[in-house]
Amino acid sequence: MQDKYKRKINYLRVSVTDRCNLRCFYCMPEGGIDLKNHKEILRYEELYKIIKSANELGVKKVRLTGGEPLVRKGLVNFIREIKGLGIEDLSLTTNGVLLAKYAEDLVKAGLDRVNISLDTLKDEKFNEISRSSSELSQVLLGIEEAQRVGLTPLKLNVVPIKGINDNEIEDFAKLTLDNQLIVRFIELMPLGESYNWAEEKYISISDIKERLIKLDNLISTSEIKGNGPAKYYQFPNAKGKIGFISPISDHYCSECNRIRLTADGFLKPCLHSDNELNIKKELRNGVTQKELKDIIRDAIFAKPEKGLGINADDDFDLNQRQMSQIGG
């Protein structure tokens, strides 16, 4: 269906948990977040009802996020159930730590592909960024296993941060020369933990492109299967591709096709707004399927024309949730 600005909304991002096995410094506080208790998190049967209703309204693309979605027990069976609804593109965003363990089961359950968030190719820096004892080798093994079982096109999401990992931009891009990977550079957004320092650490997509052009020509290429606003390029004769996502310098609000569902049961029409709709309350009050669809319609019609603070005239209000609580 369309929102009031005539944008076609066909994509739902679903956070299945607020828990994560990493503590990435730009995503959550070092001590973690105040986790919701079990009763506050949507049950799988509740998630299923919401996705089913959204599907009947025209949502054909679903992405499961977290926190880290692979830490939630029963996820594989849940994927099998929602794939049975006729979801055309069912994907998952993960930090990759547990991916090698679950990759084969995920593809058998019906998952189409994965995106892996990875901000460094260096062991020591990985531990610094993630503030964990998990090893980079676990993520690299997950990438290898995901490719082996066919969870493709496989995308690596990289957030370049000045003074942290900006000296690895070229290294990430070079991965595409001999690998059928899609490396996507995403501008740092002022959300949650990064709100107070994002401006000074921000690197624009134009600056990244300028650096990569010094390596070789960047050739504009066709769109990649997926749901996002990335613009894709590749080096001559490269096996993989490079994507650029610019929510700050060249926002894509006019093309936004998504709404989000948080793990604790709130529909978020826009990532950059605090406006939320409590769908869990209605579910647990015995809402009918028709009423559930009406609630989702209301959320879609509540989508703003543009995100606050994203190259907009509005004042940017501090988002009350950490990125790990939203699901990206």
Automatic annotation (TrEMBL):
GO BP: any one term: Mo-molybdopterin cofactor biosynthetic process
Cofactor(s) required for function per UniProt: [4Fe-4S] cluster
Pfam families: Mob_synth_C, Radical_SAM
Domain Radical SAM core: 4-229
EC numbers: 4.1.99.22
Catalytic activity annotation: GTP + AH2 + S-adenosyl-L-methionine = (8S)-3',8-cyclo-7,8-dihydroguanosine 5'-triphosphate + 5'-deoxyadenosine + L-methionine + A + H(+)
Cofactor comment text: Binds 2 [4Fe-4S] clusters. Binds 1 [4Fe-4S] cluster coordinated with 3 cysteines and an exchangeable S-adenosyl-L-methionine and 1 [4Fe-4S] cluster coordinated with 3 cysteines and the GTP-derived substrate.
HAMAP family: MoaA_B
Family per record: Belongs to the radical SAM superfamily. MoaA family.
UniProt protein name: GTP 3',8-cyclase
